[in-house]
C-alpha cells in the first residue's frame, strides 16, 4: 500500500491566498443588527455570494489550475459538475489562459449550460441514466491530455477554499464559532485549516442538509459513510460522501456537524433578501441556518458565518420567497 501523502496545511492556504490576490474578490463581511438582536450573538457574514461567478468555488478552481505546470495548463482541464464548480473551472481556466471542458448532464437547466459556455468552456453533455460522468471525464482526460479538476477532494482545491475563512479571520480577528456549509467538505476543511492557525479556540461546525447527513454519520462512525443522493433544495450539497482528503481534516479539527431542514434554508434566504438585501442560494444558507438554530449556545459571542454562494434560478427563488412564511 502506498503511504498517504501529507494533508494540506495553513501554508498551502496562505500560498493560495497569494495566488488569488488580484484575481478573486476579497468579499465583504456584512453585519446585521436584526440578526444580532434575534440571536443574542454578534454575527459576521462572509459574503462569498458576491465572489466572482457567484460562489467561493472560484477560489479552489483558480488555485488548482494556477498550480498546474505551464504545459499542462496550455493543454487544458476537465471537470464534471452541473453547478458552481462548472462555472468556477470555466472562468478560472479562462483567466489563466487555459481551456476547460465541462461534463454536464444533458438535462441540466439551459441557463446553467449557457452560463458555463459563456465563460468560454466547451460543454460535453451525457445522459444521466446511461453514462457515468466520472468515466466520461476520465476518458476526456486520457484522450486529450486534460487535467481533471475535482470539486472538493483535491489538496489545491481545499487550500483555495480555505482563503475565504482566512480573509474573515484576518479582518475580524478571533471568533468563538464559525458555521460553514458542508457538501463534500472542501470549503469546511480549508476553513478548518484557517481557523486552526488564526483562531485556535474557534469552534468550527459544518452544516449539511438534514436529508443528507453523511458528514454527521461519518464523524460518528469515524469513517467515510456514503448515502443515497439526498432530496434537498441545497443542490450544492447533494454529495453522497466526504472525500479521502477532506474527511481526515474534518475529523481532526471540526467541533461537529449540524443539520438543517429545507424550510430553515428558505427562512434564511428570505431573511437575507428582506433584511440584508442580498441573494443567497439555498446551499449558501446552510451555515446561516445552522448558526441561527444554535445561537442560543453562543450568547454574547462572536460567530462567523460563511455565505457560500448566490447562484439561484430566479423563478424558483421568487417562489421560495413568496411562499407563506
Ligand atoms: C459546492 C458548494 C458548497 C459545498 O462545498 P464543499 O466543498 O463540497 O463542501 C456549499 N455552497 C455552495 C454555494 C457550493 O457551490
Question: Can you characterise this structure?
Answer:
Helices cover 45% and strands 15% of the residues. The protein is α/β, with parallel strands linked by helices. The strands form two sheets. Strands 1-2-10-7-8-9 form a six-stranded mixed β-sheet, with helices on both faces. Helix 9 (186-198) links the parallel strand 7 (177-181) and strand 8 (203-209). The protein is globular. The mean pLDDT is 95. The chain binds pyridoxal-5'-phosphate. The site of pyridoxal-5'-phosphate has 23 residues, from helix 9.
What's this model, at a glance?
With 325 residues, the chain is α/β, with parallel strands linked by helices. The protein is built from 14 helices and 10 strands.
String of helices and strands: HEHEHHEHEHEHEHEHEHHEHHEH
Largest sheet: 6 strands, mixed
Ligands bound here?
pyridoxal-5'-phosphate
Shape: globular
Report the portion of residues in β strands.
Answer: 5-15%
Q: Give the structural class.
A: alpha/beta
Distance between the termini: 55 Å
User: Roughly what percent helix?
Assistant: 40-55%
How many separate helices? 14
Low-confidence region ranges: none
Instruction: Give the integer mean of the pLDDT values.
Output: 95
State Rg. 19 Å
Spatial order of the strands in the main sheet? Answer: 1-2-10-7-8-9
Q: How many strands?
A: 10
Amino acid at each position: 500500500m502506498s503511504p498517504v501523502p501529507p494533508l494540506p496545511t495553513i501554508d498551502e492556504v496562505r500560498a493560495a491566498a497569494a495566488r488569488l490576490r488580484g484575481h478573486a474578490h476579497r468579499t465583504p463581511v456584512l453585519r446585521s443588527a436584526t440578526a444580532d438582536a434575534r440571536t443574542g450573538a454578534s454575527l459576521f457574514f462572509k459574503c462569498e455570494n458576491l465572489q466572482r461567478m457567484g460562489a467561493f468555488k472560484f477560489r479552489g478552481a483558480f488555485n488548482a489550475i494556477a498550480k498546474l505546470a505551464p504545459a499542462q495548463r496550455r493543454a487544458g482541464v476537465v471537470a464534471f459538475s452541473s453547478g458552481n464548480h462548472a462555472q468556477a473551472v470555466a472562468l478560472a481556466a479562462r483567466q489563466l489562459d487555459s481551456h476547460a471542458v465541462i461534463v454536464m448532464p444533458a438535462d441540466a437547466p439551459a441557463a446553467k449550460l449557457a452560463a458555463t459556455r459563456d465563460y468560454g468552456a466547451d460543454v460535453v453533455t451525457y445522459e444521466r441514466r446511461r453514462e457515468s460522468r466520472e468515466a466520461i471525464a476520465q476518458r476526456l482526460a486520457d484522450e486529450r491530455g486534460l487535467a481533471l479538476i475535482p470539486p472538493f477532494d483535491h489538496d489545491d482545491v481545499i487550500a483555495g477554499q480555505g482563503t475565504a475563512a482566512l480573509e474573515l479571520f484576518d479582518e475580524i480577528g478571533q471568533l468563538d464559532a464559525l458555521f460553514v456549509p458542508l457538501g463534500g467538505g472542501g470549503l469546511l476543511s480549508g476553513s478548518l485549516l484557517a481557523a486552526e492557525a488564526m483562531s485556535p479556540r474557534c469552534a468550527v461546525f459544518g452544516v449539511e442538509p438534514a436529508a443528507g447527513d453523511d458528514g454527521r454519520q461519518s464523524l460518528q462512525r469515524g469513517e467515510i459513510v456514503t448515502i443515497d443522493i439526498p432530496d434537498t433544495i441545497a443542490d450544492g450539497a447533494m454529495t453522497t460522501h466526504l472525500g479521502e482528503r477532506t474527511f481526515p481534516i474534518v475529523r481532526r479539527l471540526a467541533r461537529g456537524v449540524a443539520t438543517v431542514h429545507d424550510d430553515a434554508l428558505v427562512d434564511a434566504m428570505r431573511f437575507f433578501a428582506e433584511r440584508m438585501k442580498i441573494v443567497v442560494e439555498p446551499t449558501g444558507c446552510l451555515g446561516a441556518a445552522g448558526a441561527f438554530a444554535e445561537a442560543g449556545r453562543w450568547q454574547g459571542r462572536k460567530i462567523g458565518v460563511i455565505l457560500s454562494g448566490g447562484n439561484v434560478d430566479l423563478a424558483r427563488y421568487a417562489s421560495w420567497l413568496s411562499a407563506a412564511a
